[in-house]
Amino acid sequence: MEEQTKPKRRWFGPVAAVVAIALVVGLCAAGWLLWQHHEDTQAGRQCTQARVTALKARKDYESLLAGKQVKEAKSVTGEQVKDAKGVTALTDDLKRTEPAMPSCPTGKRDSVLETSGRLGQAEAWYTKQIKTVKTDVKKVLASRDDKTLADAQSVYDSSEGKVADENTRTQLKKALDGKDAKAAKNAADAVNASVQAKSEADQQAAAQAQAQAEAQQQAAAQQAAQAQQQAAPGYAGGWRAPAGGYTPPARQNYNPPAAQQPQGSSPGYDPNWVAHTSTGRVVCHAGEAC
């Protein structure tokens, strides 16, 4: 008896192919997901690092603004420097608006990368701003020192022979030779104070001399007046008649000589030489005594 032939499994091949394809697709999907997760994780790390760097740059800028030099430069005015443009530049640069500091998102990779870019721009802004402000501060302080030294030199040149204490000018000259603006300013202030002290002393001495001269003139005038009073006879606080009273001299009557009648005169001629007018006034004739 012949053996029965076993039926062939025709379905196994297609099923195996489908399983294989599904396995490959699953593996690809899993691989893509793993890659995507890796890329998202990497992007997140980059964003976090970018934010840390930007925050550090902002902190450095804030520390710079709180520093002594920036505060000192901000207090300088245009009248205290040789070139006021530096003061204007510093003021304008400090008014610049700081960039935003976004947080890193947890969403899609594109959003994370965009945030990383913005954080990088913020970090670059702070780095550039720090460099700009440092340059501005340096220029302002240098210009202020230049003007301080120039003003101190003018004080030294104009104060010769005008100070109460010459040592103040010696100290100022020493500061000028050393280009020490701070010491020169303090020394110049001391010289100005010494000039003021000498000026006040000179004015006081002049006022005292004037007062003394006026007092001497007044004393001399009083002495002259007293001498004049003592030299005047019989004067002692008022006029007094000489002792014994005043006796006027005896009056002598004057008798004019008798007038002679001119020859050939008409009868009735008035022998008196005085003529009488119709007005009642006495008229003197020429050649006759009046």
Fold and architecture overview:
The protein is mainly alpha-helical and 290 residues long. Helices cover 63% and strands 1% of the residues. The chain has 6 helices and 2 strands; from the N terminus they run H-H-H-H-H-H-E-E. The chain has helices at 12-65, 68-74, 85-94, 109-158, 167-177, 181-231, and strands at 275-276, 282-283. It has a two-stranded antiparallel ribbon. A hairpin with a 5-residue loop joins strand 1 and strand 2. Helix 2 (68-74) crosses helix 4, helix 4 crosses helix 5 (167-177) and helix 5 (167-177) packs antiparallel against helix 6. The termini are far apart. The model is unreliable at 262-269 (pLDDT under 50).
Q: Report low-confidence residues grouped into runs of 5 or more.
A: 262-269
Pattern of helices and strands: HHHHHHEE
Number of helices: 6
E-strand count: 2
What percent strand? under 5%
| Widest β-sheet, arrangement of strands | 1-2
Cα-based radius of gyration, to the nearest Å: 62 Å
Mean pLDDT across residues = 79
Largest β-sheet summary: 2 strands, antiparallel
Structural class call reads mainly alpha
Q: Tell me roughly what share of residues is in helical segments.
A: 55-70%
Distance between the termini: 225 Å
Q: What general outline do the C-alpha atoms trace?
A: rod-shaped
